[in-house]
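Bit of a strange request maybe. I'm writing a small parser for structure token strings and I need a real example to test against, not something I typed by hand. Could someone generate the tokens for this chain?
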Amino acid sequence: MSDSSSVLAVIPARGGSKGVPRKNLRAVADKPLIAWTIEEARRSTRIDRLVVDTDDAEIAEVARAWGAEVPFLRPPALATDTALIADVLLHLLDRIGTGISHLALLQCTSPLRTAADIDGALALCLDGGAPAVISVSATAHPPQWMVTIDAAGRLVPLLGWEDLRKRRQDLSPTFIPNGAVFAGEVGAFIANRSFYAPETAAFVMPAERGLDIDTEDELRTAAIVLKRRNEEERT
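Reply from user aminoacidic:
Good idea to test on real output. This should exercise your parser:
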């Protein structure tokens, strides 16, 4: 990292999650879900400042207890179901963005991502010169095999018949953003209002660390994996 680089990591944690109520505070392998992301961010060698952005006083208290900074509570207008994460980050940068060269977005719903994943993605920006980086995992099934169904009930290949008939090993590898790490230059993010852009680089993560929690079943899966990880680290 150059002396002029300063990385702000942001963990957004809205209080009003709907699919899994109070998701960010739910116990997962004996820790609040948010704690797993805070801990890995604190282990990162590339992050200079770690902030939790929340509208919820209880989440703020827990985040501070686990070592994150919560400089203020998010205004209610940015904590609705329709609020955009870009607007949340731009508001945060406007409040505390002085001197920050790079921004990393770390979502609580990706608790299996490690400090090494965070640092690997940031290295593509800080050492590789990428204006933005998004973590991805290999797709479980080739999108070339996807179909829609027409009004007569017939298959319609989404990407054409030619690729639909091919074997998996004859198709080009495909990846999907997994939500674990978004990072990039602050100026590029402000200009695009997004980490997605034609110049965005991919950081490839193993699919087993790319779980993105949206359901109770996924929360239980994360708990099993993290409990096993803790047991392996102790042996």
